[in-house]
Amino acid sequence: MNFEAEILTASHDNSELYVIPSMRSLTAEEYVEAFKSFLDHSTEHQCMDQFNKEAMPNIMAGLGNGKSTINVLGVGSGTGEQDLKMIRILQAAHPGVLIDNEIIEPNPRHVAAYKELVNQAPDLQNVSFIWHQFTSSEYEQQMKEKGAHKKFDFIHMIQMLYRVEDIPNTIKYFHSCLDHHGKLLIIILSDSSGWASLWKKYRHCLPSTDSGHYITSNSITDVLKRLGVEYHVYEFPSGWDITECFIEGDPVGGHMMDFLTGTKNFLGTAPPGLRQRLQEALCQPECSSKKDGRIIFSNNLSMIVVES
């Protein structure tokens, strides 16, 4: 984590000194709150729903190769909403088949929310669940130590590679966990997204407290080409309404900027020049568009389906 020093500053009438808090990265709990504000104001899940509707039934139909149990692994599954949608598509494609669903998720709050979601679902009788409260690298290390070689018919990594240290080797390891005719789904930000422009062209506008990796789909397909594996990319449009980021003192805008920068209270702790540069960058046409007076940041996604 990167911490900048606190600065003592005189107030306007010089009567007292006040402290500008230092910039710091989001904790795991703070990230959950910031991420919620992102989901509430973006079409990310609707975009995934569109992919589920248009492409997933065909993808799921080819899994399992006639087996009585289909093995699924979710890597960085979060609170499980997307996992369960995919499980239901798999159930519809293979009625009566048992589904063994394993989940890797390091955040305890996310694991608890996922379990609650499963407890409330009446239609998952043929599905077993095992949670591994680890990061993907911890899981990989533990499996290698145990000498475990379990193979999976379907593995998915949805919007999680930004937090992985060694992306090429992580993809290589989980691809090696695929069974014959298995598929690996990677969902990642598209190179046509505002994020890609922000990270490439305006990286100097982002604070050093942002601890994630600036990864988009082209970086992933480069890795897959080097691995010599077959893959197919689906592109889906998605938007994020960031209008509140420009309204002084707006709490929702504050959470959004925290998510965007990976920084706690970015608007309150960032130097004014940095704050202004970032807000200007967000308004650039390669990052955002205006619709009905709102500022919509491009959040386009790439769904990459990798063959075993």
Automatic annotation (TrEMBL):
Which residues are substrate-binding? 44, 299
Task: Recite the UniProt keywords alphabetically.
Answer: Methyltransferase, S-adenosyl-L-methionine, Transferase
Question: What is any one GO biological process for this UniProt entry?
Answer: methylation
Q: Name one Pfam family in it.
A: Methyltransf_23
Q: Does the keyword Transmembrane apply?
A: no
Question: Does S-adenosyl-L-methionine show up as a keyword for this record?
Answer: yes
* SUPFAM superfamilies referenced in this protein's UniProt entry, alphabetically: S-adenosyl-L-methionine-dependent methyltransferases (SSF53335)
What InterPro entries does the database record attribute to this sequence? Answer: HHMT-like (IPR016673), SAM-dependent_MTases_sf (IPR029063)
UniProt GO molecular function: N-methyltransferase activity
Record's subunit section: Monomer.
Q: By what name is this protein known? A: Histamine N-methyltransferase
The species this protein was found in: Athene cunicularia (Burrowing owl)
What gene name is listed for this protein? LOC113482039
